[in-house]
Amino acid sequence: MATPAALGMRTDYCGTLRASDAGRQVRLCGWVASRREHGEHLAFVDLRDHTGVVQCVVDHAHDVRTEYVIAVAGTVRPRPEGTVNPALATGEVEVGDCQVEILAAADPPPFPVTDRIDADEALRLRHRYVDLRRDRMQANLRMRARVNAAIRTAMDRQGFTEVETPLLWTPTPEGSREFAVPSRRQHGSFYVLPQSPQIAKQLLMVGELDRYYQLARCLRDEDLRADRQFEFTQLDLEASFVGQEDVIGFVSEAVLEADAAATARPRPSMDRITWAEAMDRYGTDKPDLRFGMELVDLGPVLAGTELKALQAASVKALRVPGQGGLGRSRLDALVERAKGLGAKGLVWARVVAGGDGASGGALESPVSRFLSDDEQTGIIAAAGAAPGDLVLAVADEHRRACSVMGQLRLDLGRPPVGEGPPRYVWIVDFPLFDGIGDDGRPEAAHHPFTMPNPEDLPFLESDPLRVRSLAYDLVLDGWELGSGSIRVHRVDMQRRIFAALGIDEEQAQSRFGFLLDAFRFGAPPHGGFALGIDRFVAVLAREENIREVIAFPKTQSGADPMTGAPKALDRQAMAELGIRSGPAPPAR
Ligand code: ASP
Question: Which atom number of ligand 1 is nearest to the Cα of residue 197?
Fold first, then answer.
């Protein structure tokens, strides 16, 4: 707590007064949270600042209205018998004999400044400065500041140097749509706002910085969602002469320090699984480990099945505990959901008592008569199901079967954000390529500077999809917090990867030439990571939407209802920038 001398115009903060302060003369400043008349002259004025609320008893408070900014000088005294408010931290006291000075009048607020009343989001964002006064926003932004401070402490302790990198930059390799800024001095030329400091941080490694970090603003012109804004903040880091384990260690340290600064819980552990295992068991590369319902492989049980709907390269199933009683319309909705996710269909079966008794049940399903007894008992055993459970299954090529069931697992079992003990998990051994594109070339799963796993290098050209990379992600409760990799630091290897990706010399030179040039002057082996602060803080604050942990976010449509941005520029400004607006180009 700050010393009184540091409190400026006041002696105390509103929310800090306690019974032990009784008898003290205080001067408080803040906003009028509410005013209640008490007899002819007297009013109770609840005075609020960022620390809380205290009741002031004011004589002749006629001209004091809600959200006025006032200073109150008075004496702290115990509240009269029977009027103590245990729900309030300052509930044992009130400030009496008050002198009130109005520091600023205020219009009635566009919505009440209380967390109990949920105002329309557009209105909240239009008057964000009022919204920010609410306890929830105050708590979220202050938690965010603690997270940032803890991260800085952990990074400094680990020998990292904070370096700022440019915002007016040139394309970076993340592959999202970019924001461009027209140059006033060179009409027709543009700066590009960085999707991340990726190239800059690699150049810092060539520049012998050794260990760099930054709480970096990044910009991507992508459609906005609950977990995406145009601009976002990353803990961005890069280190030289390190391997994957070192980077994982640096990031884990910073993340756990931040977790401790944000929450009072015991230090959580960090799990680790491979990408292939994550896909197989959870159907996603960002598994939520807070609950079970793992996917099971029915392939062996159904190897010889006659049921067409379950004949495919892969049959993945899911046990939904206790949901055997789901009604037909809910089950039909699940089938539609699976189809919407790309499956050809979804087989569902209720587990009921019966069967041969030993297995503990039989299946009741539109398809059960096509399944032999052995297959039914095999499915129940493989799923670990018991009477009363529901079993769902999808047959498809492996990746699709996994991803559809992975999504159904979330739909049916995922706890609310932030609920339960946190589950951090590192995902390692990502494939280098995501698949084969329309042009017959493999597509990079991460950015093209990611180092292939040396063991798989012989297959880079002959069997690219089998090549693993030295890339790793950190996931918290099913949210991807960030990703990183060990980088390619040699020009010959980088050329080989560009060639595999179908990026020709000329393209490589025009997009990333300056990085390749830098590598000619001696690049150390290096690797790094980027952790999304917005999502991280949102999970810690148990918020679904990252807008709740950002002071001034944009709406879903990318607008800022408060400033009116984006706005037209006047003609003069347009002319200076050498741009003319015309009809939108036809959609690509
Ligand atoms: N630059 C990458 C990203 O922003 C992260 C990294 O590889 O360090 O996604």
Answer: 1
CA distances from residue 267 to 264, 270, 479, 489 in whole angstroms, order as listed: 9, 10, 19, 36
Q: Is the CB of 483 under 6 A from ligand 1?
A: yes
Assign domain 5-104 one CATH number from 2.30.29.170, 3.40.50.1000, 2.40.50.140, 3.40.250.10.
Answer: 2.40.50.140
Res. 510 pLDDT band, cuts 50 70 90 = confident
User: What residue type is assigned to position 345 of the chain?
Assistant: G
Output the CATH code of domain 135-267+530-577: 3.30.930.10
Q: What is the pLDDT of residues 262-285, one digit of tens each?
A: 998 999 999 999 999 999 999 999
> What confidence tens digit (pLDDT) does each residue in 316-332 have?
999 999 999 999 999 99
Structure tokens at 394: 């999808």
- In the sheet that holds 347-352, the strands lie side by side as 296-297, 314-320, 390-396, 347-352, 362-364
Ligand 1, residues 176, 196, 211, 432: which to mutate, most atoms within 8 A of Cβ? 196
CA distance 161 to 223: 33
pTM of this structure: 0.94
Q: 498: exposed, middle or buried (C-beta count within 10 Å: 0-12, 13-18, 19+)?
A: buried
Q: What pLDDT sits at residue 5? A: 61
- Quickly name the fold that domain 292-413 has: Gyrase A; domain 2 (3.30.1360)
